[in-house]
Every structure is written in C-alpha cells, then in structure tokens.
Amino acid sequence: MKRFIGFAIVCTLLSVSALAASNSQTIKFSDTVQVGSTVLPAGDYKVTWTGTGASAQVTLLKKGVPPVTVPATVVEQKNNHTGISTDSQSGKNVLKAIILNNVSLTL
Fold first, then answer.
1. What is the per-residue pLDDT for 11?
2. Which residues pair with 32 in a beta bridge?
3. CA-to-CA distance for 100 and 79, rounded, in angstroms?
4. How many domains, the chain?
5. How many whole angstroms separate alpha carbon 5 and alpha carbon 36?
6. Residue 78 domain-assigned?
7. What is the pTM of this model?
8. How much is the pLDDT for 12?
9. What's the chain's Rg over C-alpha atoms?
10. Tell me: the pLDDT tens digits for 2-58?
11. How far lies 57's CA from each of 12, 69, 72, in Å?
12. Structural domain of residue 64, as residue ranges?
C-alpha cells in the first residue's frame, strides 16, 4: 500500500510539471517594450501563463530583470508564426499581444 501511495504521488508531481511546461514558451523582443507600467529591455523572455480565457495571468521572465505579471486573455489557436503585437503610445512601444505556436495572449 505504501508503494502504491508513493507511486501515485510521483505520478501526480510529474503530471503537474508536464502541464506547467505546456504553458510556457520563449519569445524575443527585438526592441524595448512597455508592459503595464514596466519597461522591458529587448531580449529573450520566458512567457508563462495560468488560467484560461479572459481570466489568465501572463508572466514575463528574463535573467537580471524583475518578473512582470499582467492580466491577459488566452485564445488557443494554431499560429503559423510567433511574435508580438505592439502599439505606439506617447513614443513608447506598448505590448498588446504575444503570438505563440498554439496560443495567442492578448494583454
């Protein structure tokens, strides 16, 4: 019985890790972008998200830069490319969307 419980715990932990990995990808910002009130320098960022639909949270991570978490809408869809969508506001590139392989994240 103890072996069964130990096996069940290991399987659960592996499943959670696999699911968490599916909600993260890497994206490159070629220019400085503003996300919320934070300005992020150009570079490679790990994008992770939790939740679905309009109640999601997106976190952008880059070594040496404090993580930024913002609300977003997740739309699961197959995309032919990855990239970002920005809007120029007051001379700054404001991040509006992140387009990844199987999901679009609208901020």
1. 45
2. none
3. 7
4. 1
5. 45
6. yes
7. 0.77
8. 46
9. 17
10. 444 444 444 444 444 444 447 999 999 999 999 999 999 999 999 999 999 999 999
11. 23, 7, 6
12. 25-106
